[in-house]
Amino acid sequence: MFKNLILLSCIVFSVLAYNKSHSECIRKYGSGSFKSPKDNCNTCTCGPNGVIACTLKACIPDRTDDNKKRNKCIRKYGSGSFKSPKDNCNTCTCGPNGACIPDRTDDDKKRDECIRKYGSDSFINPKDNCNTCTCGPNGVVACTLKACIPDRTDDNKKRDECIRKYGSGSFKSPKDNCNTCTCGPNGVIACTLIGCVNPIGSSNPNA
């Protein structure tokens, strides 16, 4: 009998607490549906146990507070650039949400200039035509450091010019009539070094 009385008391207490939670929810939000206190786009109702039950729609963010913050920032600092309130060297502007956005630095401008010149991707180093480079955060070009095979284009042109003039084989030295020469890989004439009796331009002692 005593156990039944305790059980009955617990049930009554639970029902009262259950009804109290529901009543408190209704007093706060009303007996009908109301806007969600979390997002202002979903609707909610007070459940029988006092727990709020809401719809679960995907809401577009409310920008009203952001606009207020931006307007407050503009009233305080103006619509243009201003010195950062955190330090005395950076400049800021009022962002869309009222936050202080740092202005573009000289490094940013140099990087943009580098990208306009070479592009945002990696590019061939114009100095050696074999390493690749990118525009660094401060606008300085950063390149790989591979050992490159020298470009022989100019050497080939000089060699071709020498061959056109003297031929591809050996030929008599243009400085004397006893040594022989050939056109080197870099276009420079390479000659033997025999001591000549009568170099070109010297007088004949027996004449």
UniProtKB/TrEMBL annotation:
Residue span(s) of domain Pacifastin? 38-66, 127-155, 175-198
GO MF, one term, reads: peptidase inhibitor activity
Q: Which domain of life is it from?
A: Eukaryota
Q: What is its main location?
A: secreted
Question: Cross-referenced InterPro entries, in alphabetical order?
Answer: Pacifastin_dom, Pacifastin_dom_sf
Which SUPFAM superfamilies does the protein's record reference? PMP inhibitors
Task: Extract the signal peptide range.
Answer: 1-17
Q: Does the keyword Secreted apply?
A: yes
| GO CC aspect terms | extracellular region
Q: Keywords on this record?
A: Disulfide bond, Secreted, Signal
Location relative to the cell: Secreted
Its recorded name reads Pacifastin domain-containing protein
Which lineage is the organism of this entry classified under, starting from the top rank? Eukaryota, Fungi, Fungi incertae sedis, Zoopagomycota, Kickxellomycotina
